[in-house]
Amino acid sequence: MEKILVVEDDSILNKTLSYNLIEDGYIITSKFTAKSALKSIFECEFDLIILDINLPDKSGFELCNEIKGNYNIPIIFLTANDMECDMIKGYELGALDYITKPFNINIFKQKIKAFLNHLTIKQNKITIGMDILKLTFLSYLPI
Which intervals hold domain Response regulatory (predicted)? Predict the structure, then answer.
């Protein structure tokens, strides 16, 4: 089961996102501040982070930069900031996607599913030179 960290300071939206993602079978940790999010990242491995930009204690951009500097966790921004310069900055920081509020929850859930399916497929492959190897439980033998 995939673990998702939701970092959103709006408690109603945080609970709504968490409820909908739990309903889809994901394990959700929800946080309301950058500080508590970093603590959770240090304590647990996440497959994906959904991150607001306007957090009370630190910008989501700053938090993303800090996460990307120390961890290899995919990030999706979910924010009210709809300026083109903010979107570009989000992608330049390495975000998988930049979704602006308001948004359609069903489309959002499908995006999450697609991203996680893509990441799972990507994680089961190794590239050596020009060859791509797919690892499965039956075919993997340690050297």
Answer: 3-116
On the question of pLDDT at 125 being above 80, the answer is no
Q: Which helix (H) or strand (E) is 15 found in, with range?
A: helix 11-23
pLDDT digits (tens, 9 = 90+) for 1-56: 899 999 999 999 999 999 999 999 999 999 999 999 999 999 999 999 999 999 99
Q: Which CATH number does the domain 3-134 belong to among 3.20.20.70, 3.40.50.1000, 3.40.50.2300, 3.30.110.30?
A: 3.40.50.2300
In the chain, domain spans: 3-134
Which pLDDT does position 137 carry in this prediction? 46
Beta strands in the chain (DSSP E): 3-7, 27-31, 48-51, 75-79, 97-100, 125-128, 131-134
Residue 74's CB is within 10 A of a number of other CB atoms, namely 17
pLDDT, mean over the chain? 89
> Where would I find the H helices in 24-104?
34-43, 60-70, 84-92
